[in-house]
Design brief:
5-stranded antiparallel β-sheet; 5 strands; alpha+beta; single chain; binds zinc ion
């Protein structure tokens, strides 16, 4: 994966502790819980490398991304007792990408969680990143608690 030179100091997804806060990983991707979730379970799949666009991934990495995302989604659906989800990926600024590091949103849905099922995107748009200040952010302790429970759920699912 080669896209852009290493922006360790500016990209929130490249910060050194991302390896530590991920609740699941594949060879080249991480699953992170969203610090400001739209709904409980809202998570992100990101490449470990700083890659901006899905279009920069090799076929093998696209395959790995989607297989890993499906596995993580399965774990989240079980954990949150749901069978409904949205995936969303904003690729490039005109599409609403605010962090230049590819990230796939996984939004776990519940029956009647919104008056109109399609209204979720507006919520997402209002807090498009882990750096969002538009939605309540989890405290460090809340975040660590959820991440460790999801990590345990993911590890159990791999047995
Ligand atoms: Zn990055």
């Amino acid at each position: 994966m080669t896209d852009i030179s290493n922006p360790l100091h500016t990209c929130p997804f490249c910060s050194a502790d991302n390896q530590g806060i991920a609740f699941a990983s594949s060879e080249s991707f991480l699953a992170l819980y969203n610090i400001a979730p739209v709904f409980p379970g809202h998570s992100l799949i990101i490449p470990k490398a700083h890659v901006k666009s899905l279009r920069s991934l090799s076929d093998d990495h696209v395959s790995e991304l989607f297989l890993f995302a499906r596995k993580v989604t399965d774990v989240l659906l079980t954990y949150y007792a749901s069978d409904a989800f949205n995936w969303s990926l904003q690729d490039n600024e005109p599409a609403g990408q605010t962090i230049a590091h590819l990230h796939l949103h996984i939004i776990i849905r519940q029956k009647n969680d919104l008056p109109e099922a399609g209204d979720w995107y507006q919520l997402l748009d209002n807090h498009n990143s882990i750096e969002s200040f538009n939605r309540p952010r989890l405290s460090r302790d809340e975040y660590a608690d959820i991440a460790s429970k999801l990590k345990a759920a993911f590890d159990r699912s791999n047995k």
